[in-house]
Amino acid sequence: MHPLPSHFLSVAIACTLLAAAAQAAPETDAEALPRLPRIDVVGDADELPNIGGAADVIDAETIEAGRVFTVNEALRKVPGLNVRDEEGFGIRPNIGLRGLNPTRSTKITLLEDGIPLAYAPYGDNASYFHPQIDRYQRIEVLKGAQSLLFGPQTVGGVINYITPVPPQEFGGYVQAAGGNRDYANGHVSVGGGGFLFDYAYKQGQGSRDNFEHELNDLNLKYGVAIGERQSLTLRASFYTEDSQITYSGLTEAELVNLGRDYNPFENDDFDIDRSGVSATHEFDFGAAQLVTSVYHARFDRDWWRQSSNSTDGQCGSAAFDVDGVTATFAEHRLAGRRVLPTTQCNSVQGRLRRYDTWGIEPRLSWTHGAGEFQAGLKAHFEDQERLQVNGTAPTARTGTTVENNRRDSTAYSAFIANRFDTGDFSITPIIRYEDVDADRSSRLAGGESGSTSVDRTLAGIGATWRAGERTTVFASLHRGFAPPRVEDLIGGTGTVTEVDPEKSTNFEIGVRARPSDRLDLQAVYFRNDFDNLIAVGSIAGGSTPLSQGEALFQGLEFGLDAELGRGFYGRLAWTWLEEAEQSTAFVRVDTGAEIGAAGNRQPYAPEHTVTGALGWSTGAWRTEIEAQHVDEQFSDFANTVVPAASGQTGLIDAWTVWNAAVNYDVRDTVTLFVTVKNFTDDTYIVDRTRGIQLGQPRLVQAGLRYAF
């Protein structure tokens, strides 16, 4: 354990002072308590007419009615999002927006109550950690120019997860569920007096053998009014994961010969400890509000694995006999023979990571006669410590250190925006500035260090026209930006690589309408033109190198919610990604070699994604059936159709998963429910980045919720 950085000490002191102020504040009636401070990216439904861009909200009712199992399942209900499964439990969602590669959600800004959720959004925006859907009350998704109010990833969009508001009156609920594949889930949420205690436990088998998961997620939240003009929200969260999971996918022959459940790597282990604290303070000046957040998170990740993809040579070149055939470990896998890593592979690699992230962000909003003014500043700091330790036994957890790197990122950003209202029209110009400094040093003998910096000024504009009492036409245009990861900029020996930041020109135009009290819809045309797009291949597997080039994405999004009468309702989210083109051949940043060809379609960019649901609610019953469809997609820049023996390239066929849920209220405080995910038990490929990864087999769950 290294000492806490001085920056964190200042944040801790600030939190302590604010907490002391809260304790000194007089008791306040629940009726008099203002809305507790947090940062929304969309807000309530009545805010939608003011947003000059596409915006969606997944509310608590939608999450509960379908008994949503993972964040992946939830986000597919939003048009424009392509969310790729990985291990079947939604622990590491791969979120892509409007055609951008979903690998590790690197193209999205992820927030929780407006505070950075990713452990290193500037230096390593890759999601190896994600809380479960159980923690959240609703989810906001924002695209277009107003994503410049957040950042740093402004090429795709913003997803903001909202945790429940602490109640003033004592109450809560207890929920328990169980099912096949060793599934068990317990959830306790209780609060009162402005305090919330929320704890969830989840365990089960993921999409393959030896994909066992055990998760603990504790979320504490406290809100208080301080006098008449101030309020404060304090948060603390603690998350642990203990998974038996490998990084490698299957080869083609393994899938055919040994089946979808096959995974021989029983010695692999993935452990996470993540803790976070934050304080959000609001001062209400009347026409203006100043909301200031301070935050810190520590993320520890140890991943011990015997293979990083379906063809690597980590298990060595020694030949041994399987079913009468003598070959190496990798050759047996390519031929689809069952291997035994416990006895046939005397190697394991530990990828050990620690991240400290902290910052402070004041945001000012001022409502004036001509509209609303907004401005904000952010100082954000990241420390990364990265080790790779190679062991010589399948279960070794010590060995030779072959990588020992420290990476630091310091980022300062600011934005200013003003919405001008004139009759039925509004227009919002926005300017954002980002300044990022990155350092990397090797702590091995003879190791070197390197540093680099990136800064950019971005402009955007959003506009709305209230074409009627229930109809808003909107449009936005903005320059997008995303900094390269520190490891992409600065090599392991400290050398600086020329990797440009991502730059794009993004346009959208659409309409939000409520033609009747029973129908809500949103339709959008979008066009994202990239001067430079960084394409991350297999981040740790090494099968696809880092590349960059020009790209163009355009298409249509359509979302609909309808009350159909007699208790029936319907929901639709459809994305038509008409174009996802490599405008130029992408170029490897290490060798300059071209990959694929101009005009090829980007990998992991399906033309159509559709989620549709039909539900029925009457009396004590609520039922819902849902289909989630993802079109066929390429898995490499060359648009290879015939699958390679490794499973790492080849066309991924279209797939459709059917989910169903039944809820029955025994009485006001007790609900019984049954859900079935993938009830047709289809076998389908979701990823080929490191070999074939498959979607979750049929999962049946039954449970009870007791509210008090």
CATH architecture: Beta Barrel
Q: What profile does the largest beta sheet have?
A: 22 strands, antiparallel, barrel
Task: Tell me the distance between the termini.
Answer: 42 Å
State Rg. Answer: 25 Å
Number of helices: 7
The chain-level mean pLDDT equals: 91
User: Uncertain runs with pLDDT below 50, 5 residues or more?
Assistant: 1-33, 538-542
Instruction: Please state roughly what percent of the residues sit in beta strands, choosing from under 5%, 5-15%, 15-25%, 25-35%, 35-45% or over 45%.
Output: over 45%
Q: How many domains would you count in the coordinates?
A: 1
Shape field: globular
Structural class: mainly beta
Helix content: under 10%
How many β-strand runs? 35
Question: What do we call the CATH topology?
Answer: Maltoporin, Chain A
What top-tier CATH class fits best? Answer: Mainly Beta
CATH superfamily: TonB-dependent receptor, beta-barrel domain
Question: Which terms would index this structure?
Answer:
708 residues; mainly beta; 7 helices; 53% strand
Structure characterization notes:
By secondary structure, the chain is mainly beta. The protein has one domain (6-263, 279-306, 347-707): TonB-dependent receptor, beta-barrel domain (Maltoporin, Chain A), CATH 2.40.170.20. Helix content is 7%, strand content 53%. β29 and β30 form a beta hairpin. The radius of gyration is 25 Å and the shape is globular.
